[in-house]
Amino acid sequence: MRLKVGLLGGGSWGTTVASVVSRNAPITLWARDAETVDDINTHHENRKYLPGIALPPVLRATNDMAEVVAGADVLVMGVPSHSFRAVLEEAKTHLRPWVPVISLTKGLELSSGKRMTELIEEVLPGHPVGVLTGPNLAR
């Protein structure tokens, strides 16, 4: 059985990670922006954040968070730190217990000074937590 991956965030880093993951596992990317979703599904490109970069045709995008989160065996968070908590709270309503949550997000939550992994532990106690980080060279 292949693990299904859900990725929240349609920016350059989230799209790049989704593209890499799509080579080895089914993945669906969630983005708020309907134009970004359409661009990925129709043109296999994220022209807003990665113009000129071809994306694999197997990479699917949607703006329906429940669709991405409810079926995920692994959830990857690729949203900016300023919206991380709110997106995580929304995802919580659809996430099955014990699904690992991986953060791609750099920085701290301004109001609390917490790292994103600390927010995951706070909002989703009991879920395994991981982080994928490094220089963002998405292009």
- The helicity comes to 25-40%
The CATH architecture can be named as 3-Layer(aba) Sandwich
CATH topology: Rossmann fold
How many domains in all?
1
- What fraction of residues sit in β-strands? 15-25%
Poorly predicted regions are none
Order of helices and strands: EHEHEHEHEHE
Radius of gyration using CA atoms only: 14 Å
Mean pLDDT: 95
CATH class: Alpha Beta
Q: How do the strands line up in the largest sheet? A: 3-2-1-4-5-6
What's the overall geometry?
globular
Distance linking N and C termini: 31 Å
Give the helix/strand class. Answer: alpha/beta
Which sheet architecture does the biggest sheet show? 6 strands, parallel
**Fourth CATH level, the homologous superfamily:** NAD(P)-binding Rossmann-like Domain
Number of helices: 5
Number of strands: 6
What is this entry, summarized?
With 139 residues, the chain is α/β, with parallel strands linked by helices. It has helices at 12-21, 34-43, 65-70, 81-92, 116-123, and strands at residues 5-8, 27-30, 60-62, 74-77, 101-103, 129-131.
Describe, in plain words, how this protein is organized in 3D.
The protein has a 6-stranded parallel sheet, sandwiched between helices. The mean pLDDT is 95. Helices cover 33% and strands 15% of the residues. It is globular. With 139 residues, it is α/β, with parallel strands linked by helices. It has helices at 12-21, 34-43, 65-70, 81-92, 116-123; strands spanning 5-8, 27-30, 60-62, 74-77, 101-103, 129-131. The protein has one domain (5-131): NAD(P)-binding Rossmann-like Domain (Rossmann fold, 3-Layer(aba) Sandwich). The chain is built from 5 helices and 6 strands; from the N terminus they run βαβαβαβαβαβ. Helix 4 runs parallel beside helix 5.
